Amino acid sequence: MNILKFLTAGSVDDGKSTLIGRLLYDSEAILVDQLEALQRSNRKNDDGTIDLAILTDGLKAEREQGITIDVAYKYFQTQKRKFIIADTPGHIQYTRNMVTGASNSNLAIILIDARKGVIEQTIRHSFLVALLGLPQVVVAVNKMDMVDFSQEVFDKIVEDYKILAGKVGLKNITYIPVSALKGDNIVHPSVRMPWYKGDSLLAHLETVEIPVDTQSDHARFPVQWVVRPQTEELHDYRGYAGRVSSGSFRVNDKVTVLPSGFSSTISKIELLDKEPEAALAGMSVTLHLKDEIDISRGDILVSSANQPHTSQRIEADLCWMDTKALDTTHTYLVQHNSKVTRCKIQEVLYKVNINTLEKAYGADITMNDIGRIIIKTAEPLAFDPYQTNKANGGAIIIDSRTNVTVGALMLRSSTSD
Q1: pLDDT tens digits, 355-370
Q2: 111 touches 137 (CB < 8 A)
Q3: How confident is the model over 5-19, as pLDDT tens digits?
Q4: Peptide bond preceding 259: is omega within 30 degrees of 0, i.e. cis?
Q5: If residue 309 lies in a helix (H) or strand (E), which one and from where to where?
Q6: Residues in a beta bridge with 220
Q7: Whole-angstrom Cα distance, residue 292 to residue 339?
Q8: C-alpha angle 54-56-57 in degrees, rounded to nearest 5
Q9: What is the pTM (predicted TM-score) of this model?
Q10: Cβ distance 210 to 2 under 8 Å?
Q11: Pairing label, strands 278-280, 254-258
Q12: Which residues sit opposite 344 in a β-bridge?
């Protein structure tokens, strides 16, 4: 049973938490003690029904203000699939939280209030989803009960959103009219919108395809640990432990070690006490090579037939997460997979106004800003463009003074001085 990780994004009061609560409630994915706590709660909707948003409002500040601040994760499953839900904040000051929630997701649900249509926040959330390369998008037009379940209203929003999707580069979009409050088209098909012939939200989530890159030529294996027991029994044992981040490796595949550039052939794959013929994306294994090569933690084994970029000067998209502004004079640390090296932000190319998509040149990068930068690293990074291989195209920036993660990088391309 595979797992679908998805996030919900929308403006304040669009009904994100209510939608997730409805999804959990109607699919009977709530534990008995949660159900009892829900029934004891004093929070009610205007019509006297239980406020299902309680199920995701985990922080006290959220409960008091009725908004989502942190990324609230919920887990549930049906007979067809397991799900991990990231309920992300709608406010612009919590952009970094949305980036965190989106970074590991396969799908985004973007909520639009049927009464308001496509607004500034819709542009911001769609831009971030496109920037983070989510392969599937659901546009849930919520609060259809507030517009008399009008097909005309729904069709107009779909038409407007398609224009936006073209601007930010979103593909694979499914449009579903819903009412999270009333339960229409969340788990069960709506009888009040007979004009809609598609699946309910849950039915779509259960059947949507999750792309998995298992092609051997996309194989990437960051080395976490060099295994050398040096015991009498295992005197000559040398293995390289880690997790296959993308693609697949097979015995006798030709691989190249980066950044050194040395090549060899896989002689054996170990998985606990087994020796499989192949290691697929997501599997934690130990690889053995036919040749003795100097390999350290932070190096990466890749398919010799399709190698990533190797560079010390890289163009990247940046989401800044720190309360202190980005300082181009400071030396930071960059972590890419298991490799950590010093770096400097050599140049800020521009900052994006994520409400209008306009570029601001010469602007400072402060908390929750998205920008395009040039980063210079002390040691080469072996990376793929984020849009083609997220697993090997993402990195984080760490403040060397505090050891706090201050930025998320989506690496794009090598660039010359």
Answers
A1: 889 999 989 999 999 9
A2: no
A3: 998 888 777 777 788
A4: yes
A5: strand 309-320
A6: 246, 302
A7: 21
A8: 65
A9: 0.87
A10: yes
A11: unpaired
A12: 376
